[in-house]
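ok trying again, last paste got cut off:
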Amino acid sequence: MKQSKLLMPTLREIPADAEVKSHQLLLKAGFIRPVAAGMFSYLPMAKRVLNKIENIIREEMNAIDANEMLVPEILPAELWEKSGRYETYGPALYKFKNRQDRDFILGPTHEETFTQLMSDDIKSYKKLPLVVYQIQPKFRDENRPRFGLLRTREFIMKDAYSFSADQAGLDQAFHNMETAYIKIFDRIGLSYRAIVGDAGAMGGSDSKEFSAPAAAGEDIIAYSDATDYAANLEMAKDFYERQNQTAEAQALTLIDTPNAKTITEISNFLSIEATMIAKTIMFVADDKLVAVVTTGDFEVNTVKVQNFLQADTLEVAEENQVRDLLGAGFGSLGPVNLPEEVQLLVDERAADMANFVAGANEDGKHYQNINWQRDVKLLEENIGDFRTAREGDTAVDGKGQLVFTPGIEIGHIFKLGTRYSKVLGAQVLNENGRQTDMIMGSYGIGVSRLLSAIVEQKADADGLIWPANVAPFDVHIVPVNIKDADQVRVAGQLETLLTTQGLEVLVDDRKERAGVKFADADLIGLPIRITVGKKASEDIVEVKVRASNTNIEMRLSEVVDSVSVLLSGDK
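nice, full thing came through this time. structure:
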């Protein structure tokens, strides 16, 4: 293709609102343009990359016998009302009415849609297992879209769903999909980690997240520096063994703690370590008050709490709500004498405390020498890991320390079980002739955000660097002077030779200075650049490998074989 015919409006200056490298370079190189906050147009170069990513996905989905199809992006609200997510999904759900005043949504994901389809058309276990998928725009009304394609209100996603008659079928589908994802991300050329993830609004019992380490990542990957353990920070666990408490119980004492509300203030006031102070945070879980207690040196992990409670919603309680019930505000709360209607959850570390300090549920006062069972009845079933892991702590496997790194979520796979099939009536007759709920899995890849993930990991100071499998073109031919007959001749011969070999070629036929052409070539980052310059009359050109910035001078007759070798080394 001739570059003069290509819509690729490069910029000389980076827009001021572009915060991260991928956003800056994709704008500067003419790959994307904003239409509204969190919504982008994908210009021809970006679309070519997307097409190649999607083709890789299709090939690996086909390899595990997944069926590609397409469902509407606009969905009737009734489906989501049946599953309960219409109310619980939150403000990110786009809701609207049509002219008949019927409620609709823009689909952020399609578990309900595909489950309803299976409910209508699949009646026997003999038709299962079945895997279906689509590649389609999704919509989430992000409160603060940012970082270009990394957090948007409209994005392209591959979503897949498995339907099985039994748990073994789900386990196999989950394994097949995990294997396919590994092949997809390997072929794309990304560095990534498969980590323990949170199912979140998806529901279900098990999930695994694929995260690409990158400075712009909004997630934190916590991994062991000695083993393969890795998890999203929301799910990461540190190592802890419960202790048999042998300390002699001291007399419970009510003490004044004026103006001491934070853990640091109480620690300083009483001259004790934070590990001897119980932190109590009040939450509302599905309209029920819950008190969560950790040691003062840890933060409460809301994801772990919500998962433990299997709550649809979890929010920090309003202070006036807490004060109305307990008679005290934040900073003076504790587990002693909690009303019966407040559920008490205690982190395992806090459950091993003895003679500890906590708020007395009276402003400006704390209890000293609290002991479980004597002062607060604590059920074993309400003890768990409710803390946020810390970098440097021993990993849950006990064999290394936790290391934190930012990451970009690029894929997520979930074992949903019967979360959706039960409420939407997706049942089949099993081999015994009895109705049984289909067992489901859900599997997503953020297709459009893969553009940003690649750029964040691969780009350098000069511009983009596309891995060969997803590059918009394989080879960039740059004749320095298009008025030079030999350069035009050699560029034309190269285009014909390389195109005949099945390679995609971009020829810079613009009437621009050599410096501009070279800068643009580095900016758009095609794997191979062939410069046709002063030695064109001798049939000699310069081949540059963009990823390594190495230059090789070679004869025209050597180019085809050499380019093929260089490209294969990048795949």
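cool. The mean pLDDT is 95. The chain is about 25% helix and 30% strand.
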